[in-house]
Design a protein that fits this description.
The chain is mainly α. The protein is built from 3 helices and no strands. Its main location: membrane.
Length: 103
């Protein structure tokens, strides 16, 4: 293979790894948010959104092929935002210094 092709393959591998890491980070934050909201009176719609986002993450059927995790991140981020809003609406306690809990 030519040097140019190796560079393209290397760049694609790095981009794929970076999006995979970003998807894992967002999924971990989503699990932390769910744990925080468990039992805090969060509406069922937020819980269903959480489980739907996780199901999409592990589903083999995606809008984009699995080495490209941009669609997974695009589903996880709104779910995380919805859980944050549900936490505010449910009155989930803030940290000792008055800030929102880090998810």
């Amino acid at each position: 293979m030519s040097d140019t092709l190796w560079i393209v393959v290397g760049v694609l591998a790095v981009l794929s790894a970076a999006t995979a890491v970003a998807a894992v980070i967002v999924a971990v934050r989503l699990f932390k948010a769910r744990r925080l909201l468990r039992g805090a009176g969060v509406p069922d719609s937020s819980r269903l959104l959480f489980w739907g986002a996780l199901l999409y993450l592990v589903s083999p059927v995606d809008l984009l092929p699995d080495p490209i995790y941009l669609d997974d991140i695009g589903v996880l981020l709104p779910a995380l935002r919805s859980l944050h809003e549900a936490a505010d609406a449910a009155g989930v306690p803030r940290t000792r210094d008055g800030r929102k809990p880090t998810l």
